Amino acid sequence: MRANYKMQRLFVTDALSVDAEIALPTQQSHYLSNVLRMREGGEVLVFNGRDGEWLAVVNEVARKSVRLSLREQTRPQPTTPDLLYCFAPIKAGRLDYMVQKAVEMGAGMLQPVITQHTQVPRIGIDRLQANALEAAEQCGILAVPQVREAVKLDRLLADWDESRALIFCDESAAGDNPVSALAPLKGRKLALIVGPEGGFSDAERKQLRALPFVTAIPLGPRILRADTAAVAALAVIQATIGDW
To answer: 123 — alpha (psi -120 to 50), left (phi > 0) or beta?
Structure first.
């Protein structure tokens, strides 16, 4: 069932059920009452990543709080997509964009990875999770991806579940078309790894290519920025062996 894109959607942490009441936190209350100018009787859609999506009616608008009453479930809770997206963090503004687009493109888990050329010393996991939630609110996604704590590339590969294929965006891969390299992975659990600004080091590229669960793919004849490569790779994966 497709999302209703004409109604405002909010992520909440409360349990959702028929006739339940929700007191929104201050920030969301301000948004509904002062930005959207919503009043008693107004309708919104709410979800919590566990109980599906629900139609809610505003039943009280106070100075600093808004209360909602749930009426009916509009969509059941889907399973979380089983596509793991691994990425080397990049500069903040472009990283926000990359996380949002990965969620929109169907990533079910987000794994920051520290590589040799990673230039971001500190990673705000809370900020990344907030971006994932924002993308879910805007795009009708009910299964909100979890952002994991960052790990070094060596640790990620040492702990890897080899039943999951790891697709490696390698600018030095032969050819320009990734479709033929992806085709044998149809039906397998999938993960994608995209490097940092500056790409993977030669040693990292050699390390990845030596692993039996890794498939290297090219992304065309042009050099892409890390955030552009993420969107391009996720699009081609979903179109060839994913859920499109």
So the answer is: beta
